[in-house]
């Protein structure tokens, strides 16, 4: 079975570092980008991104805009996106899902919950 490749898009390198450490320890291959545009470029170059972990609050293009852009792209529209956000208010999960995210994880990230969601969307 090919290794699952996860693309982490987050404007904070500390979040990327922490997520990569956890996911690599679990056997995942990880790519990372600090902006949505950088993430799109990586997806254009790489044919085997299995899932995207998308920070919803980024300065240039937020996760909502990024998901909308992905849904319009033939190459990216079928890649599941897990919304990762510090916004854990009532309605945020629904807002992320209605924007096109496949799943939702709030920060600080519960690793077990994250792994369950990754398995759900990549198996």
Automatic annotation (TrEMBL):
Organism placement in taxonomy: Bacteria, Pseudomonadati, Bacteroidota, Sphingobacteriia, Sphingobacteriales
Keyword Phosphoprotein: yes
Protein name: Response regulator
Keywords: Phosphoprotein, Two-component regulatory system
Residues recorded as bearing 4-aspartylphosphate in the entry: 55
Residues annotated as signal peptide: none
Keyword match Lipid metabolism: no
GO term, biological process aspect, one: phosphorelay signal transduction system
Alphabetized InterPro entries for the sequence: CheY-like_superfamily, Sig_transdc_resp-reg_receiver
Span of domain Response regulatory: 5-122
SUPFAM superfamilies linked: CheY-like
PANTHER family: HYBRID SIGNAL TRANSDUCTION HISTIDINE KINASE J (PTHR45339:SF1)
UniProt-listed Pfam families: Response_reg
Source organism superkingdom: Bacteria
């Amino acid at each position: 079975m090919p290794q699952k490749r996860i693309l982490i898009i987050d404007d904070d390198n500390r979040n990327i570092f922490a997520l990569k450490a956890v996911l690599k320890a679990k056997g995942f291959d990880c790519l990372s980008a600090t902006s949505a545009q950088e993430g799109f470029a990586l997806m254009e170059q790489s044919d085997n991104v299995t899932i995207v972990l998308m920070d919803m609050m980024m300065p240039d293009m937020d996760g909502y805009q990024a998901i909308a852009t992905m849904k319009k792209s033939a190459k990216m529209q079928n890649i599941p996106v897990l919304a990762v956000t510090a916004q854990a208010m009532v309605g945020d999960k629904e807002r992320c899902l209605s924007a096109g995210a496949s799943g939702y994880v709030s920060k600080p990230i519960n690793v077990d919950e994250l792994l369950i969601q990754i398995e759900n969307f990549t198996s």
